[in-house]
Fold this sequence. Notes:
With about 240 residues, this protein is α+β, with helices and mostly antiparallel strands.
Amino acid sequence: MYQVQAILCRTFALANLGRHAGGGFDLCVTSHCQLYRPPPDGASARSIREAVEATRGMVVVYGGRPIQAVYHAHCGGRTSAAASVWGGRSEPYLVSVVDSYCRTGSRWSLAIDDGRLRDLLNRNPRTEVGRRLDGVEVTARDEAGRALTIALSGSRSHQVSGEEFRAAVVAVLGPRSMRSTRFLVRPTGASFTFEGSGSGHGVGLCQAGAMARADAGETPEAIIRYYYPGTSLALR
């Protein structure tokens, strides 16, 4: 699994050189690019260094070019196409795949007072509802069950994407509050309860499923090709 992750991180970096050129650097250390933490000590650090050396120069390509090697923590059983999550054109390799190896528990729930939800939605112009929040309803889902569009009703009623809604929540409550857009929502008195599964945006490689595949003996190349259909490995 360390080898898989090393290949993906290297590929993402190459595909996104200059992403923060205006700031004088290529990539940031937050989840906007690739979340970076200092490497651990001990056996894990050695394993990581060995994985980097074993895959040195190896990247994932499609049509001869490094791919957008996006990944997430837990798909909940099926990944989503990039176009359904973020809109726009989807790369041919960022499609929805069934992940039978992603079987570990990933259920989560969030109960939030309607007044607090209204206030945090109002912090973002894209999700603003005004002085009153009356309802939150998922109006469309993709093939993986993730919320594509959500209808917000209140002083201002409109539709937003599932990722826009989630972004507004996690910007205030943190990334572990609403872990994915794969959720059901129901009003519970003066609050809303969200019950979901999975963690992250759901596009590309599922780390939980990939880890299970590695434990089952699949090679790094086989794992990568499953989550990014039509791709191959190359040296750069």
